[in-house]
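INTERNAL AUDIT FORM
Audit reference: QA-55
Scope: verify that the stored structure record matches its stored sequence.
Auditor: D.O.
Record contents follow.
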Amino acid sequence: MFKKKDVFFETLLNMTDTLITASEMFAKGVEDLSDVSNFAKNMKELESKCDVFTHTIITELNKTFITPIEREDIMALTTALDDVLDGMEACASRFDMYQMVERDEFVIQFADVLKRSTYEIQKAIRLLSQKKLLAIREYSIKVNDLENEGDQLLREGIKKLFQDFKDPIELIKRKEIYERLEQTTDSCEDVADILETIVMRNS
């Protein structure tokens, strides 16, 4: 499907496929927290898979003289995609560490924002691999809009935590997870911003 010189795009597409799988697993996992240990384990496996793709790109960058786009853009995009999966995995691990087994509507909404963000990211990376650069902007804008939804969720979620929770330990645990989820939506926005930079440089 890809020529040897397109190994970067092939690997980036593999990363986005893994992101989609992870975001869907994360959304399903926070809906049903009956087995948080297995949830965290499965998310860790996907995070490790993404690390392998990152290593592949670094290895190829070190031995490839001419790259399809700027080397620093490939590396920045790879790192940002990896950060998204790292963020989801870190949140899943907190459910296990803190033994949080009660559904949380704000976490469920965050998971939906992340899932929709990864769909838009995948569409944008596909366009990048097809060199359809100008069409990428539509999806970058959607990711930025979803990051704004994440910001609003964080504000509403923390406000409700301080209204409803009297147990300070429970409040601290949930607040940390909300903040990590919002940071993960920021990582999605980072991907969109890097794609915008690539479009500007190559259009």
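Auditor finding: record pair retrieved intact. The mean pLDDT is 94.
Action required: none
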